[in-house]
Specification:
The protein is mostly beta strands and about 110 residues long. It is built from one helix and ten strands. Strands 1, 2, 5, 8, 9 and 10 form a six-stranded mixed beta sheet that branches.
Length: about 110
């Protein structure tokens, strides 16, 4: 199945990050970054499909904006990075793009998953 998915792992507690708000944006020619969808991670820290059913994946720039400040505030933990923004490029719209985030209050890491 093609599309865009993610999961968030909280490395400070070694568990999935449930309840993280994620916004998906697309770089539209002439219009800049345009919101496409938003979702919240489930109990396993995942969002299995960020593209809405009526949205076709296009070639070009996309970005995910993770609201980690609210997630850590709920745990009464301050964070250095209030938003984590991951920008990536779709070069083959027949593939599935999985973009995981490993996060802690003072750092994060990401990679192209499978």
């Amino acid at each position: 199945m093609k599309g865009i998915s993610t999961h968030v792992l909280d490395t400070s507690i070694g568990r999935p990050a449930e309840g993280v708000l994620i916004k998906l944006e697309r770089n539209m020619p002439g219009a800049g970054w345009t919101p496409i969808a938003e979702s919240v991670t489930d109990a396993s820290g995942r969002v299995s499909q960020l593209l809405p059913p009526n949205e076709h994946m296009h070639l070009g720039g996309y970005r995910l904006r993770f609201d980690v400040e609210t997630y850590f505030a709920y745990q009464d933990k301050p964070t250095f990075f209030p938003d984590v923004i991951i920008q990536f490029e779709i070069r083959d719209d027949s593939q599935h793009y999985h973009v995981p985030l490993l996060v802690s209050p003072y750092g994060y890491s990401t990679y192209r998953g499978s």
